[in-house]
Design brief:
globular, alpha+beta, Pnp Oxidase, Chain A, 135 residues
Length: 135
């Protein structure tokens, strides 16, 4: 049964890590785990500018991402997948706001992997399709 969009986004928000799929210029897929936040109906994470996923997104804005819970007894497990368009943000008020949200959710981020405008990117995904499953 499909969950309402708000419940799907809350599930994504509550997970510590999502896996993001991008494709390169030759349409070879890459999947990367990222620490993320969900804010105002969009999904965000930070990345160094020289990563493969940033290069892939600059060529192909379409991405997919997933968060799931797996249990060996196959009870109370499931997940949410989102498909959408990604945007690279390198500076400005949105960059600073999302950085603040990431630092709040992942306190170790600020002390061990801080990032500044122009030195890193915030990736913003606007979901166009959300899909959930649950057992």
């Amino acid at each position: 049964m499909a969950w309402p969009k708000a419940k799907q986004l809350k599930f994504l928000s509550d997970q510590p890590v999502i896996r993001v799929a991008t494709v390169d210029g030759r349409c070879k897929p890459q999947i990367t785990p990222v620490c993320h936040v969900v804010w105002q109906g969009k999904i965000y994470w930070a990345s160094d500018l020289d990563t493969k996923k940033v290069a892939n997104i600059s060529r192909h804005a379409s991405v997919a991402l997933v968060a799931d819970i797996y249990k060996s007894n196959w009870r109370n497990m499931g997940g949410v997948m989102a498909q959408g368009r990604a945007k690279i943000i390198k500076r400005g008020p949105l960059f600073l706001k999302v950085r603040e949200l990431l630092y709040k959710k992942f306190r170790v981020y600020k002390s061990n992997a801080g990032f500044d405008e122009g030195e890193a990117a915030i990736i913003e995904v606007t979901p166009s399709h959300l899909f959930n499953w649950w057992f």
